[in-house]
Amino acid sequence: MDAVFFSRFHPAQTPDLRAFRTALVRPLATCLLALAVVLLVRALQTQSLGLWLSLGLPLAVLIALGWTGYWMQQTPAELHLHADTVVLRSVWDVLTGRQPPPRRLLGVRRDHDRTHLFFADVLYTLRDADWPEAERLVARLRDRHSSPEDS
């Protein structure tokens, strides 16, 4: 393994349940806020709230749980640079110990605050704000996999 880079979302030594709970806060707050707005409007119109409470609350929690699971599976937490391949592990992969297969990097393109990694079947965009060692990461990627569009 040549180099390993960690994003700000990397759970490190955080227990699984705590990492999931931390990731759940924002989606749950968003869903409950939406439900609160609907309930407020219905209350101001003097309509019943029972159905909205009994169905809306579990639905909001289910949506937040699904949103969190999806986010954890899609958000890169680790990037392993090998000689000619890259392994991107999501937050979910790190928590479950899963090792995704290495992918051959076809190209790297740099925008003003993000880096695009081109693989055969997918494109990943890494925001500089999410990677504490972004400058070193970009330099290592460019050394190995430079493309003509790099600027």
* Class from helix and strand fractions: alpha+beta
pLDDT averaged residue by residue: 88
H/I helix tally: 4
Name the beta content range.
15-25%
- Rg from alpha-carbon coordinates: 20 Å
Q: Which segments are poorly predicted (pLDDT under 50) over 5 or more consecutive residues?
A: none
Shape: elongated
Straight-line N-to-C gap: 28 Å
What's the order of the H and E elements?
EHHEEHEEEH
Share of helix among residues? 40-55%
How would you sum up the major sheet? 6 strands, antiparallel
- Total beta-strand segments: 6
Strand order of the largest sheet: 1-2-3-4-5-6
Description:
The protein is of the alpha+beta class and 151 residues long. The chain is built from 4 helices and 6 strands. Strands 1-2-3-4-5-6 form a 6-stranded antiparallel β-sheet. α1 packs antiparallel against α2. It is elongated and about 65 Å long.
Give a brief description.
By secondary structure, the protein is α+β, with helices and mostly antiparallel strands.
Q: How is the topology of this model organized?
A:
Blueprint: E1 3-6, H1 16-44, H2 50-74, E2 76-81, E3 85-90, H3 91-96, E4 103-110, E5 114-119, E6 123-127, H4 134-144
Antiparallel strand pairs: 1-2, 2-3, 3-4, 4-5, 5-6
Feature tags:
4 helices, elongated
